[in-house]
Amino acid sequence: LLLLSLFGVLFSPSNSLSLSFPLTSHSVSSQEASLSLSSKTKSHGKLPFQYSNALVVSVPIGSPPQQMDMVVDTGSQLSWIQCHGKVRRKSVKPMINWFDPYLSSSFSFLPCNTTLCRPRIPDFTLPTSCDPTRHCHYSYFYADGTLAEGNLVTEKFTFSSSLTTRSLLLGCATASTQNRGMLGMNTGRLSFISQAKISKFSYCVPDRTGSDLTGLFYLGDNPNSAKFKYVNMLTFPKSRRSPNLDKLAYTLPMKGIRIGNNKLNISPAVFKPDPSGAGQTMIDSGSDLTYLVDEAYSKVRAEMVRLVGPMMKKGYEYAAVADMCFDGAVAAVVGRRIGDMWFQFENGVEILVGKGEGLLTEVEKGVKCVGIGRSDRLVTESNIIGNVHQQNMWVEYDLSNKRIGFGVAKCSGLKA
């Protein structure tokens, strides 16, 4: 309630919103992207985005707007941008997409005496604090070890002359391990969609090997949704306290995995939270790979050994999490022998998450791996469906109806 009264909203819930954006795929290890807002009618627009390890949009922030590259991350809450001021302008790194607060008339620091800056607010990975200038300081850590820290601020998002937010809360990072900002899209009260009252968004991730790498991203209604298969999300009471549970994530009732015609012998209990929260299955646009708990990973690996074991790279492990890897020269043969992979959900819903060589992702020059890692190597006991298994399909997050929609599509070159 405090956030809504402080920061206003982007769109009225009664509006039929549909903003769309292009998206591009890069098979590189660093995050790169650009997105521009096309001129459309008031009720329909589009944004492009690119991804390598992540989906990245270029969002217009400030007054006048500055285009800021931000990772679309359904697995985290706080949105933040890379910030610098006048004193640092000559020394900033040119590869980083910097926001200059001094160029925006709507920029404002959050003072220390606000409720959000109290140390016990549970929305940050470390307690907020008061810096020497009496501005609210935050630190935000992610599961992969990356971090961002700086000041909490309020700023406007200006998509067009008729679509401008009131000031929303975000982080103004002065130190981070990334060269892009973050657009937090989970269900937390500080996320972009929560503050802006956006109840639905979707994206179509292109594959990483085609010549046309442009896909599409929607805020609001998607005109293709009549063809989607929907899976109801699992939700948890706010009172539940479980050490391994992320209550703000998009949690799915996954039931199993099928490779070709072979449904793997994995207990359904592996994919749902136990009393401690371990086993939760989440869909996360900010994760490149898919991660499985040990029992599920072992069953998938055993099937890969059966199908293509002699072609695996012996003794090779990517980033200490994935060891189902192959020389690029045999990738096409490997893909044909593996066939299709399906994720299975409640009510008999099956989602095709990869076909043939498309199941493999290039992790370094000349090496491709099945895009699945061991979650225990991330010191987590969760299953995470990453964007490598979201290629060539629409993924819709429908918060009003508490469901996720999936629709097969050729995402490269989609037009609004």
Automatic annotation (TrEMBL):
<dbReference type="GO" id="GO:0004190">
    <property type="term" value="F:aspartic-type endopeptidase activity"/>
</dbReference>
<feature type="active site">
    <location>
        <position position="73"/>
    </location>
</feature>
<feature type="signal peptide">
    <location>
        <begin position="1"/>
        <end position="16"/>
    </location>
</feature>
<feature type="domain" description="Peptidase A1">
    <location>
        <begin position="55"/>
        <end position="407"/>
    </location>
</feature>
<keyword id="KW-0325">Glycoprotein</keyword>
<dbReference type="InterPro" id="IPR034161">
    <property type="entry name" value="Pepsin-like_plant"/>
</dbReference>
<keyword id="KW-0732">Signal</keyword>
<dbReference type="InterPro" id="IPR051708">
    <property type="entry name" value="Plant_Aspart_Prot_A1"/>
</dbReference>
<dbReference type="GO" id="GO:0005576">
    <property type="term" value="C:extracellular region"/>
</dbReference>
<comment type="similarity">
    <text>Belongs to the peptidase A1 family.</text>
</comment>
<dbReference type="InterPro" id="IPR032861">
    <property type="entry name" value="TAXi_N"/>
</dbReference>
<dbReference type="InterPro" id="IPR021109">
    <property type="entry name" value="Peptidase_aspartic_dom_sf"/>
</dbReference>
<dbReference type="GO" id="GO:0006508">
    <property type="term" value="P:proteolysis"/>
</dbReference>
<dbReference type="InterPro" id="IPR032799">
    <property type="entry name" value="TAXi_C"/>
</dbReference>
<keyword id="KW-0064">Aspartyl protease</keyword>
<dbReference type="InterPro" id="IPR033121">
    <property type="entry name" value="PEPTIDASE_A1"/>
</dbReference>
<protein>
    <submittedName>
        <fullName>Aspartic proteinase PCS1-like</fullName>
    </submittedName>
</protein>
<dbReference type="Pfam" id="PF14541">
    <property type="entry name" value="TAXi_C"/>
</dbReference>
<dbReference type="Pfam" id="PF14543">
    <property type="entry name" value="TAXi_N"/>
</dbReference>
<keyword id="KW-0378">Hydrolase</keyword>
<keyword id="KW-0645">Protease</keyword>
<dbReference type="InterPro" id="IPR001461">
    <property type="entry name" value="Aspartic_peptidase_A1"/>
</dbReference>
<feature type="active site">
    <location>
        <position position="284"/>
    </location>
</feature>
<dbReference type="InterPro" id="IPR001969">
    <property type="entry name" value="Aspartic_peptidase_AS"/>
</dbReference>
